[in-house]
User: Fold Band 7 domain-containing protein from Pieris brassicae.
Amino acid sequence: MRAEVRSMNSRRDDLPSHCDTGTSCAFTIQMPNPEAAGCVERFATFMSLLLVIITFPFSLFECFKVVQEFERAVIFRLGRLRKGGARGPGLFFVLPCIDTYRKVDLRTVSFDVPPQEVLTRDSVTVAVDAVVYYRIKEPLNAVVRVADYSASTRLLAATTLRNVLGMRDLAQLLSDREAISHMMQANLDEATDPWGVEVERVEIKDVRLPVQLQRAMAAEAEADREARAKIIAAEGEIKASRALKEASLVMVDNPMALQLRYLQSLNTISAEKNSTIIFPFPMDFLRSFMSPGAGTSITHSPLPV
Assistant:
């Protein structure tokens, strides 16, 4: 840095005379590259390579590492991230004492969100739990940008569950679980995207209501069913009365239809194996045994004047 300042001063002396008159002049100061390896780092790298050569071939067991198909390795050399991104799958090389690496699993991971006591928009307290499926899509961000991506995703899922359910009514919470799951997935995926985490799926497992609220909802549902049953029974009686009216009109026009209906009723009663049968006997059967004047109307004598 001092050498650069001296070179800057020497360049300033070589400037034209108009810079000495008070006019503004621009100076470019070249700062050292922070990514460039220093002398200590180069010396440590040289010593590590020397150690590998001295302990050859036993050092190969520590220098060569293997990651599986579903894993990636993020390598740091003296605290700095190595160029080339994550390594794997397969074999990669590390230097002892100066290189450290961390494996990241790319498979889908699932975890249960603990039951959360949520106050819905209509002031009802419910306990809701869910399950979240996520995977790592960018291993470098998952290692560098967040300390523990798994714990952070779990805490964020619990908080998001409370926030999303707090904006819904109890009826919406019970009947529209799929929309709530999609909304929670979108919020989680947007929040965890800088961490290299992709939330694939969110499912609401169970919604537990207080016992008193369950009893009240059961009583309400039972009353609703009873009301609908009474309405259905009343409508059935109206239809039956209309059908009986139409049948009576048919029987008035044809008396034999009434006789056939009596016989049908008698057959139905006898099929039940009853010991006593009470059956109304039609009076039309007795007309043939009655006197000819019995069926006619009785003539009254005129009243005395």
Summary: The two ends are 155 Å apart (CA to CA). The chain is about 45% helix and 20% strand. The CA atoms of residues 9 and 29 lie 11 Å apart. Confidence is low (pLDDT under 50) at residues 1-34, 294-305.
